[in-house]
Each structure stands twice: as structure tokens, then as C-alpha cells.
Amino acid sequence: MTKKERFAFVLSYFEEHAPNAETELIYDNPYQLLVAVILSAQCTDKRVNMTTPAIFKNYPDVEALSTATFEDLFPLIRSISYPNNKTKHLIGMARMVVENFHGEIPSTVEELITLPGVGRKTANVITSVVHHQPNMAVDTHVFRVSARIGLTTNATTPLQTEKQLLKYIPEEKVHIAHHWLILHGRYICVARTPKCGECGLRPVCKYYHSLVKGN
């Protein structure tokens, strides 16, 4: 099977079985999504969704967040992983958005990565989810799933994975393919014991054919 054929099967499968896949983070606007994604680093979406309502109640927009003090914001996110750094990042991000971008969340990867707490993955999430730009955010799920299925070959970094995926996924499908791979990794192709028996990608999955079926 060629790489092109494998991608075609995977995309077709997800289009049929998960046509409306989307982020599990709860948000109402780009500001709220950016806050949620910054908080989600090495933390579950479920925990983030339990935490953000209090933040958004106290700081309903980026202007309000830019006036926050560490002492006031920290208690609201102390249950999140790395709360010290994330508190500083959120305040710094908000202040920079107000000062450098007139209070508007930037819409390009290049601008977003200038903000505190925003790396390439976060910037790709924002531009993909909000603006449907063809940017592929690679988290641990996307990295793992892509390698197991065989969508990527010898990719050792998120950027290598991103580039290989973009080579074969049509631009208009990149924004939803990001969610397909994340959700598949979160619920089926899990890290320790992947649920191959429930997986509809078995016919084209390199992991299944080499390690599971071969035993």
C-alpha cells in the first residue's frame, strides 16, 4: 500500500464516522479558546473545562485579563498543571495582545507565537479552529497516532510530523483532520494499550499488522 492510498483510506474513514469532529475545549470566542489552549498544555481538556468558567467570569475579555495580578489569577488555575508558569503566561499574553494587537487575538501563526505561552502547536490550534487555516497542530496524540498508522515515517519531532501530514492531507481538510487524529488518539489509539479491536483503521494500520496481527 502506498502512503497516498493509506491517507485516502484514513481520511475517508473519518469523513464517514466523524464528520463533525471538533475540539472538546469549551469556548465562545478566540480569546476564550486561546486561554483554554494555553491552559491545556500537559493537562486534560476535562480539567481545563472545569477551570475556565471562573476565569472567564472574572476576566470576560482580554482587556480584563491584562489587568489581572498574579495573586488574583493564580487561585483560579491552581488545579491546572504548571499553574505558576501558566498564570504568568496568561497575564503576559493578555497584556501583549492589548498593547501590540489593539486587543484583537492575532490570526496568524507568526503573530501568535510572539505571545507568552504560545508555541507553534497552540498557534496552529487557534488558526485552524477559529479561521480554518490549513495548519496542523501536533500534540502527543497526533504524533503517536500518525506514526502508528503509518501516516508518518521516521518523524522524530512535532514539526517533522506536521510537514509529513500536510504533504498528503488536502488543505480544505487539514483543520478537521487535526481533530480526527487527536480524538482517535484520545479514545481509541491510546498510548499504553490501543483498542485495536474497536478500530476501523485496522486494514491500513502498520502498527496493527506488524505488532498485533503478527503475534
Automatic annotation (TrEMBL):
Enzyme type, top EC level: lyase
One Gene Ontology term from the biological process aspect of the record: base-excision repair, AP site formation
Obligatory cofactor(s): [4Fe-4S] cluster
Gene3D superfamilies found in the cross-reference section: Helix-hairpin-Helix base-excision DNA repair enzymes (C-terminal), Hypothetical protein, domain 2
Catalytic activity: 2'-deoxyribonucleotide-(2'-deoxyribose 5'-phosphate)-2'-deoxyribonucleotide-DNA = a 3'-end 2'-deoxyribonucleotide-(2,3-dehydro-2,3-deoxyribose 5'-phosphate)-DNA + a 5'-end 5'-phospho-2'-deoxyribonucleoside-DNA + H(+)
Pfam family, one: HhH-GPD
HhH-GPD domain sequence ranges: 39-187
Details of cofactor binding: Binds 1 [4Fe-4S] cluster.
Matches recorded under InterPro entries: DNA_glycosylase, Endonuclease3_FeS-loop_motif, HhH-GPD_domain, HhH_base_excis_C, HhH_motif, Nth
Sites where the protein binds [4Fe-4S] cluster: C189, C196, C199, C205
PANTHER family membership: A/G-SPECIFIC ADENINE GLYCOSYLASE/ENDONUCLEASE III, ENDONUCLEASE III
Name under which the protein is recorded: Endonuclease III
Organism for this UniProt entry: Chitinophaga oryziterrae
Gene: nth
